[in-house]
Amino acid sequence: PVYYEEAIKNEVWEKAMDDEIDAIEKNQTWELMDLPKGKDVIGFNWVYKTKYNVDGKVQKHKARLVVRGFTQQYGVDYNETFAPVARLDT
């Protein structure tokens, strides 16, 4: 599916979305809080992918919840960024 409205009509994709939400909650990825005055909510999208095994058979339906971070403005919505990167020393 491309759109949420398509995915929600199919049990397989509905379960994939439920699994993603369960994983987010289990890993304590976010914390619910009140929206501060003058701040906007950052939107999100669902991204759907079908994974196949080596035989070409469906292995898994994966749904990911992704934040539309490109809507944020530096100095307004955030002041610094951080991306964990592994570095191998030779």
From TrEMBL:
Protein name, as recorded: Reverse transcriptase Ty1/copia-type domain-containing protein
Organism ancestry: Eukaryota, Viridiplantae, Streptophyta, Embryophyta, Tracheophyta
Superkingdom: Eukaryota
Residue ranges constituting the Reverse transcriptase Ty1/copia-type domain according to the UniProt record: 27-89
Organism: Taxus chinensis
